[in-house]
Structure formats: C-alpha cells, structure tokens
Specification:
- Strand 6 (101-103) and strand 7 (106-108) form a beta hairpin.
- The protein is an alpha/beta fold and 256 residues long.
- The protein is elongated and about 70 Å long.
- 35% of the residues lie in helices and 12% in strands.
- The strands form two sheets. It has a six-stranded mixed beta sheet with strand order 1-4-3-5-2-8. It has a two-stranded antiparallel ribbon with strand order 6-7.
- It has helices spanning 12-16, 37-44, 116-137, 148-153, 174-186, 193-208, 217-225, 240-249; strands at residues 3-5, 24-29, 55-58, 61-64, 89-94, 101-103, 106-108, 145-147.
- The model has no long low-confidence stretch (mean pLDDT 90).
- It contains eight helices and eight strands; from the N terminus they run βαβαβββββαβααααα.
Length: 256
C-alpha cells in the first residue's frame, strides 16, 4: 500500500484547524459509483464543502487528505445525542467502482463478478491502512475499528449503511476486516502464494478491460500509432517479456 499526501487545504474543515486525540478508526464508502480519486480531491478541496475525511482508499493505494490528528467531518450528529466520532476517530472513504446506482441506500445494478478484482484491491488497501494506523496510535483492531453503520448503532454517527451494504456482496464484513488487520499486525501470512497468484490474475483480468485513462490518451495513441502496442488492454500489467519486446521495437536493444 502506498500513501500519498494531498491535504485539502481549501476545505473549511482543514481551515478550522481543530485537532483530536485519535481513539479509533471509522471506515466509510462513498455511496457513489466513482473510482477516480482525482474527482474527490478536486471537488472537496474548496470552501463550502460540509464534509472531509482523513484519507481516500482507492484501487492504487491511499491518499491522505487531512493530518491524522485533525478533526474530520465524516460522522455527523448522532441521532441519540451521543458524542460524534468526528471528535474521536480517524476516518477514510473507500472509493466504489463505476457502473451502479443507489435507491434508498441500496446498490442497484452492482456486478459482483465484474467488480471482484476491484474490491479485492481496495479491501486490501483498507486493511493495510488500518494496520498502519493501529501501529501508529496503539489501536486494538478488534475494538477500535468500526464502520459508519456500526457508529450509528453506538450513537456516535448518523444513520448510514456503509460499509455493511457493500462488503457482504464479496463475502467480507467489518468482522473479517478487523480479523485481517489483526493478522497483519501479528505478522501472519494473510494469504498463500497460490492465493496471491489467483488474486493478481483476477485483478489483471479486471483492469485489462478498462479503457485508457484520460490523462494517458494522447501518449497511448502515439504508442499504438508507433507500433509499440496493439491498441488493446491499455491498463493490463506489463510482463518482462512484453517490456523486452517494446524495448526492441524502440531500437534500444539493437546494439546489445
């Protein structure tokens, strides 16, 4: 997991400058089918946005958006009058894949099989981020990590369903996440090599069918026109033998 920093300095939450003593982690998901973290970095980094979390978890890693000890705006006012987790918890949002909609807090048109690789990647990043924060602040993964839904049940957050509306579709839950974080902290093997190979194969198959990202369209078109690639599977992983072929096509191996 790679953590990059992009503090939302123009967000009113950051400007408020209030700090907390973190006592736990609250896990959220966006509730919108948008996997591109750049969209949220842009739309949230401005005044008059009434929400802010400490990080976004996306397919490629984690972006830290508030200092970990800053008071975030993520839990809202609990319905029973309890103390909001804004005052106690570090919070992150897991970005959801594209392709579905919502009706009354329920995912509509969500393709579990198609999104299996995407979910596996963001779930793993969420586990590693939680483990990192547990190490840093001494949190107990079995008691100090919860999602927005569980926060409502404890009267420290508003009545939202995330992430309990999404994780079970892939055979996961907050209980499995807590257990996986515990295993990560204990240094145990979370998966065998065979399991890792299967996960990577599923991930590669999932991203292979994705179109080229907007930022890379011009370069991709030039590479295809030059005969370096065949124009298919722009987001598929590049093997060493494929890299060697590209280098040969560029003429970089002719003098070897």
């Amino acid at each position: 997991m790679e953590i990059t920093e992009h503090i939302l300095t123009q967000n009113d939450c950051y400007k408020a400058g209030r700090t907390i003593t973190p006592k736990g982690i609250m896990v959220h998901s966006m509730g919108v089918a948008q996997p591109k973290v750049e969209v949220f970095l842009d739309t949230w980094n401005k005044p008059n946005v009434n929400m802010c979390v400490h990080a976004f978890v996306h397919r490629g890693g984690v972006v830290e958006t508030l200092p970990w000890n800053w008071r975030g705006w993520h839990a809202g006012s609990p319905p029973g009058g309890g103390i909001s987790a804004n005052n106690t918890h570090i919070a992150f949002e897991i970005l959801e894949p594209a392709g579905h909609t919502y009706e009354g807090g329920t995912m509509v048109g969500y393709d579990v099989e198609k999104n299996a690789a995407y979910f596996a990647a963001v779930y793993r990043n969420a586990v590693e981020l939680c483990a990192y924060l547990c190490r840093r602040y001494g949190f107990d993964p079995m008691t100090d990590i919860l999602d927005h839904h569980e926060g409502c049940l404890r009267d420290i957050a508003t009545n939202h369903a995330d992430v309990s509306h999404w994780f079970p579709k892939h055979g996961k839950s907050m209980d499995t996440l807590r257990a996986d974080v515990k295993a990560e902290l204990e240094g145990g093997e979370s998966m065998t090599q065979e399991q890792f190979n299967a996960l990577f194969a599923a991930y590669a198959q999932g991203v292979a069918g994705q179109p080229v990202e907007e930022w890379a369209q011009d370069a991709w078109s030039k590479a295809v026109a030059a005969g370096l690639f065949d124009g298919t599977k722009p987001q598929a992983p590049l093997t060493r033998e494929q890299a060697a072929l590209v280098l040969e096509r560029l003429g970089l191996l002719n003098n070897q």
